[in-house]
Amino acid sequence: MEYGSASAGTLAQQLLPRRGMLSDQRVADLALVLGGSLFVALCAQIRIPLPFSPVPITGQTLGVLLVGSLLGPRLGLLAMLLYLVQGAIGLPFFAGGEAGWQRFAGATGGYLVAFPIAAALSGWLATRGWDRKFGSSILAMALSMGLIYLVGAAWLSTFIGVEAAIANGVLPFLLVDALKIALAGAALPGGWKLVRRLRDNA
Prior knowledge:
This protein has a single domain, classed as Arp2/3 complex 21 kDa subunit ARPC3. The protein has eight helices and two strands; from the N terminus they run H-H-E-E-H-H-H-H-H-H. The chain has helices spanning 11-15, 25-44, 60-88, 102-105, 109-126, 134-160, 162-169, 174-201, and strands spanning 47-48, 57-58. It has a two-stranded antiparallel ribbon with strand order 1-2. Strand 1 (47-48) and strand 2 form a beta hairpin.
């Protein structure tokens, strides 16, 4: 089976089989963008509400970090924009199956808006090799997660104030998100090892 060329910059481009319709770069890119948006939508269905915070624990951020790193800055950004449009027009793709444009105006709207930016950042770092070793992969994930916190908490602060936004929109999630970062940070270098094994056996 033919895979992406050795010069391809991202893990997804390396692993995507290049045969049939996927041999066309535009079709392959479209498949990656659509697949990335659906993956985050699936992750978003993992939702644990917190009684003291308007922000729930979800799988969305893990999906955003992985999609950005796997697809690169351009396709990762497009995948997250598509995801936001899908949820906005009524598909049950936001956390816990929610949907609608009103989610952007609510207390968690800043986190949603941050997703394309964070995906682009993690993708940009991945194309520079940060996803190929555990240490640099962890750092890339942490920087992207920090960006989500920054934008999300800044928007949340307009509803409940800065101190409350940090207390309710950042601090309760640090441990869980550290686990997400560790998971993504380990998965990506493992994926590159698989790529090398596939090429060695080709």
